[in-house]
């Protein structure tokens, strides 16, 4: 997880909501197979988009954030820009789909 940060209940506001760049947040859990499948894709994208911040929220360790953003199924990918949700998707998607979400979020 070189370019992928770990977001927690404690740092979410500072690192995500107050970020001056778009932030892709991967809500996941260690026991989730599809989450593990999408993790390398997130890592690849983090290496390709240097103007977007990437991070993960372990929903088992950070229940407050997961509840606040109504994460009911994982993986859930949410992109924040200026503290607001601009893109959201659930499930494991191919790299091309996630890359388009990032591009669309940057354009908004």
Folded structure, characterized:
The chain has helices at 12-17, 33-48, 63-68, 95-107; strands spanning 4-6, 23-28, 53-58, 76-81, 84-90. The chain is globular. It has 108 residues and is of the alpha/beta class. A hairpin with a 2-residue loop joins strand 4 and strand 5 (84-90). The relative contact order is 0.24. The protein has one domain (4-107): Glutaredoxin. Strands 1-3-2-4-5 form a 5-stranded mixed β-sheet.
Write a concise keyword list for the protein shown above.
alpha/beta, globular, 38% helix, Glutaredoxin, 5-stranded mixed beta sheet, 108 residues
Element layout with pairings:
Layout: E1 4-6, H1 12-17, E2 23-28, H2 33-48, E3 53-58, H3 63-68, E4 76-81, E5 84-90, H4 95-107
Strand order of the main beta sheet, please? 1-3-2-4-5
* CATH C-level name: Alpha Beta
Q: Using only CA atoms, what is the Rg?
A: 12 Å
Strand count: 5
CA(first)-CA(last) distance: 27 Å
H/E element order: EHEHEHEEH
**What does the oligomeric state look like here?**
single chain
Structural class: alpha/beta
Total tally of structural domains: 1
Here the CATH topology equals Glutaredoxin
Query: What is the annotated CATH architecture?
Result: 3-Layer(aba) Sandwich
Largest sheet: 5 strands, mixed
Q: Quick one: CATH superfamily?
A: Glutaredoxin
Question: Which parts are unreliable, with pLDDT below 50 for 5 consecutive residues or more?
Answer: none
Helix content: 25-40%
Q: How many H/I helical runs?
A: 4
């Amino acid at each position: 997880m070189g370019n992928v940060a770990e977001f927690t209940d404690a740092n979410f506001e500072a690192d995500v909501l107050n970020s001056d760049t778009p932030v892709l947040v991967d809500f996941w859990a260690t026991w989730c197979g599809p989450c593990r499948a999408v993790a390398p894709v997130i890592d690849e994208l983090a290496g390709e988009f240097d103007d977007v911040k990437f991070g993960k929220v372990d929903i088992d360790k950070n229940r407050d954030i997961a509840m606040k953003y109504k994460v009911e199924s994982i993986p859930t990918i949410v992109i924040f820009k200026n503290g607001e949700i601009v893109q959201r998707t659930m499930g494991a998607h191919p790299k091309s789909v996630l890359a388009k979400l990032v591009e669309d979020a940057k354009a908004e």
